[in-house]
Structures are given as C-alpha cells and as structure tokens.
Design goal:
binds adenosine-5'-diphosphate; alpha/beta; binds beta-D-fructofuranose
Length: 372
C-alpha cells in the first residue's frame, strides 16, 4: 500500500527529515522582578518606580531566549520545579520553542528569583538574587542526553565547578570517540564534534578551573576586574595562558565593546553600538554571548559542510599551551581572523540593540534588519 502523499507523487519513500543539531545551554533559569527607577534609590527611602515587569531570567536561560529569537533550535538544561513560578518559566520557554525536556523537575525546589533595579540615570542594573535550593545539574543529568543531537554545549560557570568539569570531560570523551570512529571507518556521518563554551561571569576564583576544558570562553568585565585586570587586552593575554591549546576567548566590557583572541593569538575588536536611548542593560552580556555562539555555530556548520580536506586556508598555526594538562583537541578549527571579527561585531550589535529594548522582545526583528 502506498502510504504517504510523498510516495504517491515521487514513487520512493521520503528522504529522512534533516535534523538540525541543537545548541544546549546549561545553567540557571529564574524569575526576574524588574523595576525601572529614575535613579538608584537611597537606602531606607520610599519611592515609586517608572515601570515594573517580571520575566524569565538566568544567564543560560537568557542565552536560549536570544538564540531562539535568532531562529535556531536550542535547549535549556537546568533545575526546574513544580512550584508555580517555575511553571511560569516553563510556559515561557514553551512559548519561545526552547526545549527543556531534559531538565530535572523537583517536587518542591521552589524557584530562584532576582530582584533587579534598573537606573534610568546611569543605565546600571543592580541584581539581588536568591537561589532557593542548592541543587545543580550533574553528569548524571547530562548522560541522559544523546550527544549526537547537539553541535554546541555552553556552560554558565556556577558553583558546581567539579560537576561542570566532569560534564566537559564527558563531552570531550564523546568527541574523541566520534573522531576516532570517523577516521577508522572512513565514516562520513553528519555528526559534528561538539564545541564546548563556558562563561566566567561571577567573581568566584574557582571558575578559573573551567578554562582548560573549554574551546571557547567568555570572560566578563566583573570577573576580569576581580583578577586585577583593567582592560580587555590584558584579560585576553592573561587568560589565554590558562586556557586549552587552540581556545578562543572573548572579553566584553560594557560601553567599551568587546575583544576576542583567536587560536593563533590574533586579537580582534569591536566598538559598542549604543542605541538611541539605553533603557534596559539587564542581560546585555547574555545577549552578547548568545549572539557570538549563534554566529560561530553557523560558521562551524558551513565550514564542515563545505570542507575540502586539501584546503589549508582555514588551518591556523597554534602553539601548544604547555601550562595545561587537559588539552585534548580543540573544536575551533572553523575560527579564523575574519570569522572572529564578524562574530565579535555581531555580538556587540545585538547586545547594543538589546539595551535599547525592554526585555528581549524585538531581537528577532533587529536580526532581520541586520541581515537585510
Ligand atoms: P554584563 O551584562 O555581563 O554586565 P557587559 O556590560 O559587559 O555585560 O556588556 C556586554 C556587551 O553589551 C558589551 O560588549 C557591549 O557590546 C554591550 N553593552 C553593554 N553596555 C553598553 C552600553 N552602555 N553601551 C553600548 N553597549 C553596551
Ligand atoms: C542577567 C541574569 C538575570 C538573573 C541574574 C542571575 O545576566 O541572568 O536574568 O537574575 O543574571 O545572576
């Protein structure tokens, strides 16, 4: 019996549906209660604010919000619960088509919450966060995923540094097995090794332990300053000593824009692109990181699709970082100077546009305008 419309018309069974490998972001989702104030309040005063809203927040969760607005399939992996605020987070992710199907859902884990004060006069955002419970994602949770479904996995550097390292090593083992299988069998399967990125944002010194395991690292201004660095170049040059051989590092610095260091040591830079009026700087860094991940991932996919094994043009000379023990192969061969330059500009453009918007709504329109 001819079963489908396709078979009746074409006469053969349909080609297998092309599944686009996802970007996975591992970290926090929380409720942000945001108040827009004329200026930052004085202690023990009583005043009205200009605007109030609540929205889904958390770095990894915000990364997914941005990636989904750029219309790329993404997944969030973090702790959720059955509590009503956590249900709000889940409903919001459903609305934006962010997959959260592998998240542990705690019976009564509460819901992490931030109170955020935005100051109209300075553009600052002050965050007071409550984490509700100590549970974090572990290797056991990651092991439930089929890694072939992902092309990029991003970790928000959180308290559970040793769990994150185990997860990064698990991915490294998967990549090594995949590459070995492909070279032994001459297997030209479509699966790509996974690129692993990490964000060092909060000023906890132990986050530095994550650097040797990441192909791509995002170091925030706050983290850099907590290590005594006063600018982006200093940040990149110092952290590259502690990174995996061949890693790419980004340093974003508010209105100074951002810089990145390529695997071969080349440094590229972008100015900031401030909007006409700054109205909401909450999540600027999350937007920058997500935009860069999205951009680089797109380049990675086309690099592997168009790859000609004899083409040396994209190969960069990388000297081995002997400070680092881990140093397995780095999944950054698609990153050259031009790619990195465009990624950093794209990140600054999107982050600049975001701070002119209330929340994240409207970023997909910004992106469409950027393309046209
Ligand atoms: P975070 O949210 O982590 O504090 P940053 O303040 O470092 O992040 O900002 C990340 C990116 O957002 C910057 O690289 C820049 O492109 C953009 N950005 C942030 N603040 C401003 C600003 N005041 N003017 C223009 N761009 C900004
Ligand atoms: C912004 C953010 C907020 C959240 C806070 C957690 O970068 O993710 O959405 O409340 O940081 O630290």
């Amino acid at each position: 019996m001819i079963s489908t419309f396709y078979e009746r018309i074409v006469g053969t069974s349909p080609p297998p549906e092309q599944i686009v490998p996802k970007i996975l972001c591992v970290g926090l989702s929380c409720v942000d209660i945001v108040q827009l104030c004329k200026s930052y309040p004085q202690e023990d005063t009583d005043q009205s604010c200009i605007d109030f809203r609540y929205q889904r927040g958390g770095n990894a969760s915000n990364n997914c919000t941005v990636i989904s607005q750029l219309d790329y399939p993404c997944e969030f992996l973090g702790i959720l619960s059955k509590e009503q605020f956590s249900k709000f987070l889940q409903d919001d992710m459903k609305k934006l088509k962010i997959d959260f199907s592998h998240c542990p859902i705690l019976e009564d884990g509460g819901c992490p919450t931030s109170v955020v004060l935005l100051s109209m006069s300075t553009g600052s955002r002050t965050i007071i966060h409550h984490k509700q419970n100590e549970t974090e994602i572990t290797l056991k949770d990651l092991e439930k995923l089929s890694l072939e479904d992902y092309t990029w996995i991003h970790f928000e550097g959180r308290r559970n540094v040793s769990d994150i390292i185990q997860m990064m090593q698990h991915i490294e083992n998967y990549n090594n097995a995949l590459i070995q299988m492909q070279s032994v069998n001459g297997d030209k399967s479509t699966h790509l090794p996974i690129t692993v990125s990490v964000e060092l944002e909060k000023t906890r010194p132990e986050l530095l332990d994550l650097l040797p395991y990441a192909d791509v690292a995002f170091v925030s201004k706050d983290f850099s300053q907590s290590r005594g660095y006063t600018n982006m170049r200093e940040t990149l040059n110092n952290f590259s000593q502690e990174s995996k051989t061949g890693a790419t590092i980004f340093s974003a610095w508010a209105d100074r824009g951002a810089m990145a260091r390529a695997p071969d040591g080349t440094i590229v830079q972008s100015p900031a692109f401030p909007p006409y009026k700054i109205i909401d700087t909450l999540g600027a860094g999350d937007t920058f990181n997500a935009a860069v991940i999205y951009y680089l991932n797109k380049e990675k996919i086309s690099f592997h699709r168009d790859r000609n094994p004899d083409d040396q043009s994209l190969k960069v000379e990388v000297s081995r970082n002997f400070n680092i023990e881990s140093s397995e192969r780095c999944q950054t061969e698609f990153i050259n100077r031009d790619v990195l330059q465009s990624a950093v500009v794209f990140g600054c453009r999107l982050a600049g546009a975001k701070i002119g918007l209330r929340g994240f709504d409207g970023l997909s329109k910004v992106y469409k305008n950027y393309l046209s």
